[in-house]
Amino acid sequence: MEPLERLVQLFKKFPGIGQRQARRFAYFILRQNEQYVEDLVASMRAQRSNMRRCVESFQYFYDLTPARSSPLSSATPAAAAPS
User: Fold this and answer.
1) H-assigned helices in 1-83
2) Range of 22-26, 61-65, 79-83 with top mean pLDDT
3) CA dist., res. 23 & res. 34, Å (int)
4) Do 10 and 29 form a contact (C-beta atoms < 8 A)?
5) Each residue of 1-47: pLDDT tens digit?
6) Which of 22, 59, 73, 79 could covalently link to 11 via disulfide, CB atoms 3.0 to 4.6 Å apart?
7) How much is the pLDDT for 67?
8) Alpha carbon distances (Å) from 42 to 23, 45, 51
């Protein structure tokens, strides 16, 4: 699969995003400068490493304690809060 098509396929996994919108996203990314793309990737990685989901309410919350083995692990805010 070509890199552009791979990017389109990844965007299609977003909720509510079809083939045409995914292609628009891919072309948008291609038109941006390198710094924008690096900032976008860094922001996504930071969110993945700092977010957790409550097993009771299914809401996401920031957990800035040292990283666990799995990002977005199921933990309650009370259990994740430092003592």
Assistant:
1) 3-12, 19-31, 34-50, 77-80
2) 22-26
3) 19
4) no
5) 899 999 999 999 999 999 999 999 999 999 999 999 999 999 999 88
6) 22
7) 54
8) 22, 5, 14
Query: Which amino acid is located at 9 in the chain?
Result: Q
d(C-alpha 76, C-alpha 53), whole Å:
7
The residue type at 65: T
- Cα–Cα distance, 19 to 10 (Å, whole number): 10
Q: Are 72 and 44 in contact (CB under 8 A)?
A: no
Which residues have a Cβ under 8 Å from the Cβ of 7 and sit 6 or more positions away? 25, 26, 29
Q: Which residues contact 80 (CB under 8 A, 6 or more apart)?
A: 52, 61, 63, 65
Q: Answer for the pair 69, 49: CB distance below 8 angstroms, yes or no.
A: no
The pTM of the full predicted model, rounded to 2 decimals, is 0.64
The first and second tokens of residue 55, run together, are: 């097993």
Residue 48 CA to residue 45 CA, distance in Å, equals 5
